[in-house]
Amino acid sequence: MKRLFNIVLPVFMLLGVVTTSCATTVHTRPSNDIVITKIRHPKMIVHNNIKYYRSRGVWYLKNNRGYRKVAAPVGARVKTLPRGSKNVKIRGVKYYRCNGVHYKKSGERYIIVTI
Fold first, then answer.
1. Is the pLDDT assigned to residue 42 strictly greater than 70?
2. CA 98 to CA 100: how far, in whole Å?
3. 58-67 burial, b for 16+ CB within 10 Å, e for fewer?
4. Residue 12 has pLDDT above 60, yes or no
5. pLDDT surpasses 90 at 104
6. Residue 15 domain-assigned?
7. Per its UniProt record, what Pfam families does this chain match (predicted)?
8. Which residues, other chains included, contact 83 with Cβ-Cβ below 8 Å and sequence gap of 6+?
9. What is the extent of the structural domain holding 71?
10. Domain total for the chain?
């Protein structure tokens, strides 16, 4: 009985670790027409005298009801890339991509570009 217990216990512990490590977090992105009342840790970027807000790589404009998702402002300069940005090379030029937005390094900042 003790020998059976020594075999069965590690198997159950292993299964517990395997099943708990498969958990994932799903982040949803709002559509363009939806106004969100709160966004998590927004970073404000001013471009052409318009205040844009970036959170998790998604760009927003603020209005009196909340935040509305918009396209990234081409030509805007940002200090940091969003989390999850990937290096991509297009026609020999190095870019960074996150959520369909391309960034190009310029000095110590990154410029939003169209490809």
1. yes
2. 5
3. bbbeeeeeeb
4. no
5. yes
6. no
7. DUF6515
8. 56, 57, 98
9. 33-113
10. 1
Q: What is the DSSP string of the chain?
A: -HHHHHHHHHHHHHHHHHHHTT---------TT-EES--SS-EEEEETTEEEEEETTEEEEEETTEEEEE---TT-EESSPPTT-EEEEETTEEEEEETTEEEEEETTEEEEE--
Between β-strands 77-78 and 66-70, what pairing exists: parallel, antiparallel or unpaired?
unpaired
| The token pair that represents 15 in the structure block | 């299964």
Confidence of residue 14 (pLDDT cuts 50, 70, 90): low
Phi, psi of 17 (to 5 degrees): -70, -40
What is the Cα–Cα distance from 56 to 85, expressed in whole angstroms?
Answer: 10
Q: Can you say how many angstroms the Cα of residue 27 is from the centroid of all Cα atoms in its chain? A: 9
| 13: Cβ contacts below 8 Å, ≥ 6 apart | none
Q: Which two tokens stand for residue 19?
A: 């099943």
Residue 96 lies in a domain: yes
Q: Is the residue at 101 inside a domain?
A: yes
Note if the pTM is more than 0.85: no
Contact 61, 67 (CB under 8 A): yes
